[in-house]
């Protein structure tokens, strides 16, 4: 998801990406969060995904990392 978010952001198509891929489903599953380290911009985009989902649908985050990481 992170690479798709960054690409949509750089292409100026972030609003279309959010409406098509983030807000249209009842459940959004983000698997292996933290598998790759996120830069500041990528972390901000991921926060925006969660914020856009607020009160619109459920989000499931999975990771094998402990909370301390």
Order of helices and strands: HHEHE
Q: What is the rounded Rg? A: 12 Å
Could you state the oligomeric state of the chains shown? single chain
Low-confidence runs (pLDDT<50, min 5 residues)?
A: none
What is the number of strand segments?
Answer: 2
Biggest β-sheet, characterized? 2 strands, parallel
- What's the domain count? 1
Derived structural class? alpha+beta
Number of helices: 3
Describe what you observe in this structure.
With 69 residues, this protein is α+β, with helices and mostly antiparallel strands. It has one domain. Helix 1 runs antiparallel to helix 2 and helix 1 (2-10) packs across helix 3 (40-53). The mean pLDDT is 83. The two termini are 20 Å apart. The chain is globular. The protein contains three helices and two strands; from the N terminus they run H-H-E-H-E. The chain has a two-stranded parallel sheet.
Kindly summarize this structure in a few lines.
The chain has 69 residues and is α+β, with helices and mostly antiparallel strands. 46% of the residues lie in helices and 12% in strands.
Which key features would you list for this structure?
single chain, 46% helix, 69 residues, alpha+beta
Can you lay out the helices and strands and say which pair or pack?
Layout: H1 2-10, H2 14-22, E1 27-30, H3 40-53, E2 58-61
Parallel strand pairs: 1-2
Helix pairs in contact: 1-2, 1-3
């Amino acid at each position: 998801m992170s690479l798709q978010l960054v690409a949509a952001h750089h292409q100026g198509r972030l609003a279309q990406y959010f409406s098509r891929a983030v807000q249209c489903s009842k459940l959004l599953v983000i698997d292996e969060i933290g598998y790759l380290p996120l830069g500041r911009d990528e972390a901000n985009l991921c926060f925006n995904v969660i914020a856009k989902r607020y009160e619109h649908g459920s989000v499931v985050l999975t990771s094998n990392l402990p909370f301390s990481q």
